[in-house]
Design a protein that fits this description.
Protein name: Pentapeptide repeats-containing protein
Distance between the termini: 64 Å
Number of strands: 61
Strand order of the largest sheet: 2-1-7-3-6-5-4
Structural class: alpha+beta
Keywords: Repeat, WD repeat
Number of helices: 20
CATH class of one domain: Alpha Beta
Largest sheet: 7 strands, mixed
Pfam family, one: WD40
Strand content: 25-35%
CATH topology of one domain: Rossmann fold
Helix content: 10-25%
CATH superfamily of one domain: P-loop containing nucleotide triphosphate hydrolases
Mean pLDDT: 84
Organism: Hexamita inflata
Shape: globular
Length: 1112
């Protein structure tokens, strides 16, 4: 077998790319790239303030026997590949492990044979590969370019890495993983826990890194005798980088910095220093210089070469090659000169002198028979410039010859290309007009439909608004309009076949007579009950389903509605319970239906006539009911007992108890021999026949809301209040796994009929789909805006039915296409939102531990403030908006300078705080939280000056306008009014039941208002003595009092929509913009005469067309 040194040498030889005839820059560009600069990274992608050295993290990874996989992600040009090459050189010297570099784009069978194919390329025989695999030699597989194969497939297990004594390091662009917060599943084994995975994100260069690089660069120039008098000092480069507007902002990674130093002298000569430089300008300058120097070299060294129009040929060659590679989903091309049918012969034919001459002038890497551009972003730049050229020619003068260009033959899908198109639109405003011209041209010319589809997709990626656009008769098959803003757009008669409209905003849009074949809405038709839903349940054949909901006025889910599954038509309403319906079930034969309620009863109905057959009273609330799968038994949970009844005569067979605490959920095993009962801090497994417990697990720290047997009865899966799902072995009752991924309490679970999937519903409205064998996360879905109370798979194994407290029964497909873009937004639900006092920015704080500042004009993100380690509960601004306070569950209060956006002071507390408010003098603030007290701090003295003890936890605290009084409330629904002159609580009001969300003083500070937002019917008003003055308020009064801080003088209002910030017109309710990814909305759309639409999509559109005007 080859020695370790031989392996390393071969690895280095194979993977160190050489550039064929590198252009004679001031020094060779390849050398610039290989002047390696130490990189920094973050472990937490949400906190840029904690940058650490990549080498240190990698060293820790090698030393950590537990960690098996590392992912290094970052933007284009951040140095991922260069770092891989650097690592190989370092490991060659240290001999800690044997590195094997695997370039995914170069492989044919990377999905299953990436190791074997790479070693075969290194001329390892099968015997040598097997010997290496069985040896004790520890390998490091450096797997580069996951994003370049444009895949979302798992690598570790399919490639058999478990069979090797190895660690693995993967690289990937961050944008490729942007829409999947559980991306780690692509890189780790299904048998690994998350602690075995190290995740690093490369960050932008700081000033010191730039300075170090420039110093070494100038030293390299001097070594090569390339220094010129005017560019002899690294400070000259630094000063010019800082001088050109926009240039310093571009210096964010090794590749961009290498480009900048290579072209900076030319930029300073040719560029208007008053004009902001963009990355598009930089790429253009780099490519132009490359072509000019190559042309000069050809002219100087080879007089026999015709240099006429050579630069144009370089550019045309680059455009064609880059576009063909992109169309073929390749970043690396393999060319065998002996293959006469090779599709790449036109680019690499060595027998054609002119082809060879032109190829040598193009920025390519050539490694043996593999060809690629020197960087993927260079390829993307050429693709975008080629598309720009084609669009402009097509818009100016239609020519049949243009129909075969790439922009009109393939739908664009690459995010990097879209990024360049966005910059082209900003740099050349007339290009936007050309895109619209091509879209307009498609109305009368079907032949340009692909180009039109790409044009509208480019505009959508660039966040162009299509509000009220006249798109009648346009033809855009395959366009991606996900997350598009298209309110009021007229798409009548348009060809929208295969168009992606996921999460698009389409209020009052017109689809009349449009071709909507295979349109993807990412959503199915739903049921809107207009009240919160406690339970939903199918019958066995899934032709009808029942949902338990209630009456808005009563806040009770005491009625049951029966629906047709195909048409979603309501068949009947059952209204026999006197309190919340907590459980529903159909008998396996479909003839009977059962419900239970907090009114202490179980009702059994005849399905044919929906009449009560039997009502069974119990001594306390019934929280669960179900039939056994063989139809023999009815089981229910009530108090600390479980009751088993005969399904034939409804007689009581057995009583199981007394349980450790109240039972919340009961579930039969699939063979009907056992059942599990669970609740607050326990679960028990019982044998049905003997009536005896076979296992009891108590003293669990958290509440179990739902328990479920796996389809093969080998495992018990439980949903917990600590945001986890725990799995026990049914035979040994050992805890075998803990599933983490939810950000709030897990309320319900369901397995798919084929046993492949597990889906879980959460208190925050999200669903997570899990692999039922490996229990890895497959995807997360924002299904609802409130708690998901019930969940169930359809028989197709692809659709999930869910019921929620938002009043909706939804049908969600587990198979959906990734969205085209990521809009700036919070990763968690927003806690508070408000305008600044000068209305120049909007501030929001969130469960994702961040604070974000937004531009009120267009909704663009101004800044994200990091620093808290837990939910940011509230913020408060000084009167002049120069400072801001934030409070969090991490028991810290932070003071922010709003000019520098830096935290200037941190107050450490003894417990989490939820509410904060600045005093009018901007020198003091009030704070409250878990410890049942209101704290008054003096910022100037940096200490607490008053401690006002209350009876309950405080969630909201507000000063009066003159700061003489303070009002506070909490989850116990008590209202406290405090006289700040004496520090005494002058009144405590507790004559109401609801949990108030917001408080306010009247303008004269004589009255206090409270409400459960956004519900005007919950509004109350007291005078400052605590006397209740008024309970009924209009929508207008509510808005004037409680939405004033969210409404600007020009009538624009900001609202919270889950994890998004939304701005609307306060008078009309019309949405102006929204941040973050949001839910499909087609309220008021029209679709008369729509063609080729699926029945499901037609039902969905009909529902939206008729829906009442509310955000879903």
């Amino acid at each position: 077998m080859k020695t370790q040194l031989e392996i390393l040498k071969i690895t280095m030889k194979f993977n160190t790319t050489t550039v064929d005839n590198i252009v004679n820059f001031c020094i060779e560009f390849s050398q610039l790239q290989q002047m390696f600069q130490r990189l920094t990274c973050i472990n937490d992608v949400e906190d840029l303030s904690k940058a650490v050295d990549v080498d240190e993290q990698f060293s820790n990874f090698l030393k950590n026997d537990e960690q098996k996989v590392m992912l290094i992600q970052g933007g284009a040009g951040t140095g991922k590949t260069i770092y891989c090459q650097y690592l190989i050189m370092q490991l060659l010297q240290s001999k800690l492990v044997v590195p094997v570099y695997i370039s995914l784009p170069q492989l044919q069978n990377w999905e299953k044979q990436m190791v074997e194919e790479t070693l075969n390329e290194l001329r390892f025989s099968q015997t040598e590969i097997l010997t290496l695999q069985q040896s004790k030699t520890q390998l490091l597989f450096i797997v580069d370019g996951y994003d370049e194969v444009r895949s979302y497939k798992r690598l570790y297990d399919p490639n058999g890495l478990l069979n090797w004594n190895c660690k693995a390091l993967f690289t990937c662009r961050s944008s490729h993983l942007a829409n999947d917060k559980f991306y780690y599943k692509y890189f780790i084994s299904a048998k690994f826990e998350l602690r075995m995975f190290a995740d690093l994100t490369l960050v932008h260069f700081d000033d010191k890194q730039i300075q170090d690089y420039l110093q070494r660069f100038c030293a390299k120039l001097e070594q090569n005798s390339k220094l010129t008098p005017e560019w002899k000092s690294w400070k000259t480069y630094q000063n010019n980088i800082n001088q050109v507007p926009g240039l310093r902002a571009l210096v964010e990674n090794p590749f961009i910095l290498s480009m900048i130093v290579s072209v900076l002298p030319n930029i300073m000569q040719k560029h208007d220093t008053k004009q902001t430089l963009t990355s598009l300008d930089l790429y253009e300058a780099f490519v132009q210089q490359w072509f000019e120097l190559e042309e000069e070299r050809m002219y100087t060294n080879n007089v026999n070469t015709d240099v006429t129009n050579l630069q144009k040929e370089y550019r045309d060659y680059s455009y064609r090659l880059a576009s063909k590679m992109m169309d073929s989903v390749k970043t690396v091309v393999e060319y065998n000169k002996d293959d006469k049918q090779n599709p790449w012969r036109q680019f690499f034919d060595q027998n054609d002198p002119r082809v060879t001459t032109v190829r040598r002038g193009v920025p390519l890497n050539i490694s043996q028979r593999f060809y690629s551009f020197i960087h993927k972003s260079i390829q993307e730049y050429f693709v975008a410039k080629n598309g720009q050229k084609s669009i402009e020619l097509m818009a100016d003068a239609y020519d049949e010859k243009l129909l075969d260009c790439s922009i009109n033959t393939h739908n664009i899908v690459d995010r990097g290309v879209f990024g360049f198109y966005s910059q082209i639109i900003l740099r050349f405003p007339e290009f936007k007009h050309k895109l619209y011209q091509v879209i307009e041209m498609s109305k009368t010319n079907q032949k340009v439909s692909i180009a039109a589809a790409n044009a509208i997709t480019i505009l959508n990626y660039a966040n162009e608004s299509f509000k009220n656009a006249d798109f009648r008769d346009i033809k855009i098959p395959g366009a991606n309009l996900s997350l598009a803003m298209m309110d009021g757009a007229d798409l009548s008669g348009a060809d929208l076949s295969n168009v992606d409209l996921q999460s698009a905003w389409l209020q009052k849009a017109k689809f009349d007579n449009a071709n909507m074949k295979n349109v993807e809405f990412g959503q199915r038709a739903y049921v809107d009950s207009e009240s919160f839903i406690n339970k939903v349940k199918f019958n066995k054949c899934q032709d009808i389903f029942a949902c338990a909901n209630g009456y808005v006025q009563a806040y009770k889910a005491q009625k049951v509605e029966i629906y047709n599954c195909k048409t979603l038509e309501k068949l009947c309403t059952i209204d026999h319970h006197q309190d919340d319906v907590t459980g529903l079930a159909f008998s396996p034969n479909g003839k009977q239906f059962i419900s239970c309620s907090k009114d202490n009863t179980i009702n059994i109905y005849n399905v044919e006539k929906w009449q009560i057959i039997k009502s069974i009273p119990l001594d306390c609330e019934v929280v669960f009911v179900d039939y056994s799968k063989d139809g023999k038994y009815i089981i229910c949970g009530s108090g600390r007992f479980v009751f088993l009844y005969s399904a034939d005569d409804y007689s009581l067979i057995n009583t199981f108890g007394k349980h450790y605490k109240n039972v919340i959920t009961v579930e039969f095993s699939n063979d009907c021999k056992y059942f599990v009962s669970a609740g607050e801090g326990f679960f028990q497994v019982w044998e049905v026949e003997s009536g005896l417990p076979v296992q009891t697990v108590e003293d669990i720290d958290n509440t179990i809301y739902h328990a479920e047997f796996s389809p093969d009865d080998s495992r018990i899966v439980c949903a917990f209040s600590d945001n986890t799902i725990k799995i026990w072995n049914f035979k040994s009752y050992d805890s075998i796994n803990v599933l983490r991924g939810h950000a709030s309490k897990v309320m319900c679970l369901a397995f798919s009929p084929n046993g492949q999937y597990l889906v879980s519903g959460c208190e925050d409205g999200t669903m997570i789909l899990w692999d039922a064998k490996s229990f890895e996360i497959i995807k997360s879905m924002n299904a609802h805006v409130r708690l998901i109370s019930s969940i169930q798979f359809l028989n197709d194994n692809e659709t999930v039915m869910s019921g929620s407290w938002d009043g909706l029964v939804k049908f969600t497909s587990i198979k959906s296409v990734p969205l085209i873009k990521s809009l700036p937004g919070h990763a968690g639900e927003i806690a508070r939102i408000q305008y600044s006092n000068n209305f120049k920015f909007i501030v929001s704080c969130s469960m994702d531990s961040t604070i974000k500042l937004w531009n009120p004009i267009d909704g663009s993100l101004i800044k994200t403030l990091f620093g808290h380690d837990d939910v940011v509960c509230a913020v408060s601004l000084t009167n002049d908006d120069k400072f801001m306070l934030s409070t969090s569950r991490d028991s810290q209060v932070k003071l922010w300078n709003m000019e520098s956006f830096k935290c200037v002071r941190t107050f450490q507390l003894d417990s989490p705080s939820f509410a904060i408010d600045f005093h009018i003098d901007n020198q003091m603030f009030a704070l409250a939280g878990f410890d049942k007290a209101i704290h008054i701090f003096d910022i100037t003295k940096n200490l607490e000056i008053e401690y006002l003890e209350q009876d309950d936890e405080i969630m909201i605290v507000k000063y009066s306008h003159d700061c003489q009084k303070l009002v506070a409330t909490g989850p116990a629904a008590n209202l406290y009014i405090v006289d700040m002159t004496t520090g005494e609580t002058v009144i405590k009001v507790n004559d109401f039941e609801m949990d108030f969300f917001d408080l306010a003083f009247s303008e004269d500070d004589q009255f206090v208002y409270a409400c459960e937002r956004p519900n005007p019917k919950s509004m109350r008003m007291w005078d400052i003595s605590g006397k209740l003055i008024r309970e009924q308020f209009s929508e207008a009064e509510y808005s004037e009092i409680f939405e004033a801080q969210q409404t600007s003088p020009d009538g624009k209002r900001v609202k919270i929509f889950k994890n998004c910030v939304q701005q609307t017109d306060a008078n009309t309710g019309e949405m102006l913009w929204i941040s973050g990814e949001y839910t499909l909305n087609m309220l008021g759309c029209s679709f008369e005469g729509v063609q080729n639409i699926s029945q499901e999509n037609k039902m969905l559109m009909e529902q939206y067309r008729k829906a009442r005007e509310k955000i879903i």
